[in-house]
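Researcher: Sequence recovery benchmark, item below. Answer with residues only.
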């Protein structure tokens, strides 16, 4: 019988990893439910397509690498990457875009570096960033949230299952016939209207965030707090990111005039703020490892998200913020390694590889 040698870290069983992955998937369900209610079945289509493509891509690469396919597929990490990527993509994007994003995430973001536990970058954000840069039109247009079409006096409504499938597989209406810019994008490009005038003219704005996006972010906040309570993730990175985003948006708020960058509540409850804080920044592999390091890592992401939102070229920036801080994670670990018992200072150079 041939033995397959697997490089360290050696797995003693996949129960713990699989349990963690299942908890993460379960914690996304409140957000999935709210997004499906607000934006229609497109979110579920994304999840199904990304899950299938992720499992196929991972199986193919494992086969090429001569690794046990069923053993690694059963840990659930490919499904988590697929779900997180699917939830980040706009509903009703073409099927081929989901395929490209998922294949890039699994092959180039994960397996190229050796698989689970070896990737220096967040795989889902690698896939997302590639398609965002390559297909900006498809990636920056979202369907208008349920209820907002009446406020905006639009005839567009959420598509039926049949219409949704037609759009995803290429035979539906053009994207500009049913999609609108996100509240973050509208605020970013506003040069003339005050906040009150902007909210009156564009009812995609809600009470304190984007219309519907307030509930999406609250749902991900609930799911994230469950993960913190179950100790699946720690509070440090989410607190660092949300705290830095709050401080930056408070400092550069700009009031309610036409030059406003949006209130702290607007930035915390619009776009992918809560999703990024609890499900992306908390990746244990590509982020910092110490408690202080996680706070610094999260704070760096929060600062970058605000800077790109307010002055950069993209309305939301969680993916870019996370990937840039992934580059800084080894340095953060180097300077935030806690001292060991009996030593006056922390040992330097004890990174993840050590």
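Model:
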């Amino acid at each position: 019988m041939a033995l397959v040698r697997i490089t360290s870290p050696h797995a003693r069983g996949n129960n713990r990893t699989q349990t963690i992955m299942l908890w993460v998937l379960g914690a996304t369900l409140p957000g999935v439910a709210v997004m499906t209610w607000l934006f229609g079945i497109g979110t579920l289509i994304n999840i199904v397509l990304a899950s299938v493509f992720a499992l196929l891509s991972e199986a193919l690469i494992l086969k090429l690498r001569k690794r046990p396919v069923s053993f690694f597929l059963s840990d659930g990490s490919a499904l988590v990457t697929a779900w997180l990527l699917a939830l980040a993509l706009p509903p009703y994007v073409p099927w081929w875009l989901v395929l490209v994003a998922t294949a890039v995430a699994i092959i180039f973001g994960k397996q190229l570096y050796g698989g689970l536990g070896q990737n220096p970058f967040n795989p889902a954000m690698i896939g997302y960033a590639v398609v965002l840069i390559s297909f900006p039109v498809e990636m920056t247009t979202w369907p208008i949230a349920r209820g907002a079409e009446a406020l905006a006096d639009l005839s567009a409504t959420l598509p039926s299952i049949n219409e949704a499938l037609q759009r995803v597989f290429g035979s539906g209406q053009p994207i500009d016939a049913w999609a609108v810019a996100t509240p973050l994008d509208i605020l970013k490009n506003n040069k003339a209207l005050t906040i009150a005038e902007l909210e009156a003219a564009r009812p995609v704005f809600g009470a304190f965030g984007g219309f519907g996006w307030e509930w999406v972010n609250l749902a991900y906040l609930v799911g994230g707090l469950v993960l913190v309570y179950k100790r699946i993730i720690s509070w440090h990175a989410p607190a660092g990111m949300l705290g830095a985003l709050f401080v930056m948006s408070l400092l550069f708020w700009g009031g309610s005039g036409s030059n406003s960058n949006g209130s702290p509540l607007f930035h915390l409850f619009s776009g992918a703020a809560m999703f990024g804080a609890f499900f992306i920044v908390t990746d244990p592999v590509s982020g910092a490892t110490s408690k202080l390091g996680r706070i610094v890592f999260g704070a760096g992401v929060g600062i970058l998200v605000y800077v790109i939102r307010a002055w950069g070229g993209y309305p939301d920036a969680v993916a870019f913020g996370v990937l840039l801080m992934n580059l800084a994670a080894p340095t953060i670990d180097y300077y935030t390694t806690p001292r060991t018992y009996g030593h006056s200072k922390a040992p330097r150079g004890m990174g993840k590889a050590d």
